[in-house]
Amino acid sequence: MLNIDEEKDKLTKKLSEQYSQNIINMNEYERMLDYITNIETGKEISVIGKIIDENNIEHSALTKTENNEIAAPKGGEKYFSVFSWRTSNVKSANGNGGKYVSLFGANRIIVDNLPKGRTIINVSSVFGLTEIIVSKNIKIVNKTTPIFSGIFMPSEINKENEELPELYIAGKAVFGNITIRTVEEVKRENEFGEKLKEKIIQKIIDRT
Fold first, then answer.
1. Domain containing 153: what range?
2. What is the mean pLDDT of residues 186-204?
3. Pairing state between β 70-71 and 63-64
């Protein structure tokens, strides 16, 4: 039988080792420690354990070469959405756009201003939802992996245009979704929604 307290102690020890090795900073350490403290089930232990283990593929937002070799550009921030919802704007630091984790939560990632060359983001959607919104002047290369989940994207947008900044999306969805959309698509939906709302309001007014 799984001993919850023992497993929490193991996770705390792993987390402390990562902090001592500068793999994570103080804010990340305290945030993850708070999650560990509030664990009540074996499933929560499994999910939090996977996130902690992923930190050891560190200094990353994975860069993959044409041979699928892994390199790790330094820099980049980490953004966690755990039982919550957040919006983040991607900022490239030496080609690293950061790591985004959605755990029983939702992440909206907006990409509208990248430098020339490749910017890599690492996305994990675990029992959560991640929406990536990209402007039309950015090339998208999607290398995310679905595990009992869905990844939605029309195609690798602007793939053949070598002159555009490239957004390289690595990571995985586990019992969650990753949806990649263009800014233009979102704008059209918003405009349609506003027009529909106006029509409904007008009909209500006409009936009164």
1. 60-207
2. 68
3. antiparallel
